[in-house]
């Protein structure tokens, strides 16, 4: 049915947060509460400024849109968009009303505690009459645009792409929402497990996985430039929906292959490692089924990148690694080292090539291929005084010379990397002298 009649309306904050009038729930697929204290305090200041503005005395202060999904279960309304604002408003009103810390069992206890403490300090400066007046202003004079639909797909189609402070959602956030919708037939327990696994990853690691590696590999392997991963590019990771009415023969082939993948577990008993099984399941040149396979792929690729950083930078190459190898060993995270920022782009190019190589050919001939891929990527650092992303993008897509990605995409053997061009002449005497010697030593073998 989609958005119902009279489903879009302006309501006061007090009306919306009244549990008798609106049975609001935070669905399992939503991320935990994540606002920083500064954002919550800015909301307070905005409300105070509006209340004090004489030109707005007769005009309600609108706090944006809230999108709700009516699931038909006892009138429950799932908050699809607006949960950060609503939870913050609940905390503000709770403090003004003299309540203790709200229950945080399902909404990000640490973040809630930090914001609650900051709000308590800020609002504690108000005298009791003023606190009462502010609470009344929020409940009666602050409004939100309420959008109610009984179709969860429609709810996400009108999903507001910006939060209250105007920060656009990252592309991987939209991919998460898309693939959770594709899991509509899965159990709530399975959906909750998927969300928990996703939220356990650092947001910068998720962004890096898609924007720095998966997106670039997909573009470069086709000979295209990769100017930057945006919300306009998420279609390449939406996968194939088994419920689509327009499945092509190619779609059916890939879905059939995915359905047969459980047989790989039996192969594992014959000597295939978990990493080899993952590479078989999540081929970068083949589309995935949408829904849970997407989340499984993300979990695997995050771990695969960490393995490849360790594997790709042995002791002789460690000085040229942009990532902090000691931090990776201790905390299992990809921390960057500012002191080696000059190797950032070539490190990323090298790791993307390693990821693509091992995804296609596993460990076969990797010991011989790794120096070739390193030299191909890092030669930019010796040939140019300043390496910018445009130069890396050109090399990745093969402008002016062979691309490792283009060669690997069409090869039947990893030995194809032997066709990569040798490093060019160094920029000048003394420029990256140590790295030049490493590349010379390999070329002499």
TrEMBL record:
Residues 13-180 form the GmrSD restriction endonucleases N-terminal domain. InterPro entries: DUF7834 (IPR057156), GmrSD_N (IPR004919). Residues 191-420 form the DUF7834 domain. It holds the Pfam family DUF7834. It comes from the Bacteria. This is DUF262 domain-containing protein. It comes from Nocardioides euryhalodurans.
């Amino acid at each position: 049915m989609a958005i119902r009649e009279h489903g879009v309306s302006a309501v006061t904050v007090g009306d919306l947060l009244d549990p008798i009038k609106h049975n609001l729930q935070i669905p399992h697929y939503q991320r935990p509460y994540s606002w920083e204290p500064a954002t919550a305090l800015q909301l307070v200041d905005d409300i105070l400024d509006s209340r004090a503005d004489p030109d707005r005395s007769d005009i309600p202060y609108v706090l944006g849109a809230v999108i709700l999904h009516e699931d038909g279960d006892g009138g429950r309304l799932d908050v699809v968009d607006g949960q950060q604002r609503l939870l913050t408003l609940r905390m503000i009103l709770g403090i003004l009303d003299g309540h203790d810390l709200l229950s945080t069992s399902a909404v990000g206890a640490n973040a809630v505690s930090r914001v609650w403490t900051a709000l308590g300090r800020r609002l504690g400066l108000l005298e009791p009459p003023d606190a009462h007046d502010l609470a009344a202003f929020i409940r009666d004079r602050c409004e939100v645009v309420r959008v109610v639909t009984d179709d969860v797909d429609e709810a996400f189609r009108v999903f507001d792409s910006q939060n209250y402070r105007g920060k656009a959602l990252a592309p991987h956030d939209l991919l998460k929402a898309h693939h959770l919708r594709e899991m509509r037939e899965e159990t709530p327990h399975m959906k909750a497990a998927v969300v928990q696994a996703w939220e356990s990853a650092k947001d910068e690691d998720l962004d890096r996985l898609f924007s720095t590696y998966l997106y670039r590999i997909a573009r470069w392997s086709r000979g295209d430039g990769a100017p930057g991963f945006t919300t306009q590019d998420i279609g390449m990771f939406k996968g194939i929906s088994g419920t689509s009415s327009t499945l092509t023969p190619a779609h059916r082939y890939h879905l059939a292959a995915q359905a047969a993948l459980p047989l790989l577990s039996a192969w594992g008993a014959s000597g295939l490692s978990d990493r080899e099984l993952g590479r078989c399941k999540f081929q970068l040149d083949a589309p995935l089924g949408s829904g849970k396979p997407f989340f499984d792929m993300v979990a695997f690729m995050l771990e695969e990148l960490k393995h490849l950083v360790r594997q790709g930078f042995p002791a002789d190459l460690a000085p040229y690694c942009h990532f902090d190898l000691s931090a990776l060993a201790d905390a299992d995270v990809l921390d960057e080292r500012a002191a080696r920022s000059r190797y950032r782009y070539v490190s990323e190019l090298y790791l993307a090539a390693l990821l693509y190589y091992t995804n296609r050919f596993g460990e076969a001939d990797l010991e011989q291929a790794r120096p070739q891929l390193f030299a191909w990527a890092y030669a930019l650092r010796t040939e140019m005084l300043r390496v910018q992303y445009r130069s890396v993008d050109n090399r990745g897509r093969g402008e002016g010379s062979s691309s490792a990605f283009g060669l690997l995409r069409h090869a039947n053997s990893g030995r194809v990397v032997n066709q990569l061009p040798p490093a060019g002449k160094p920029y000048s005497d003394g420029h990256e002298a140590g790295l030049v010697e490493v590349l010379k030593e390999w070329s002499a073998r």
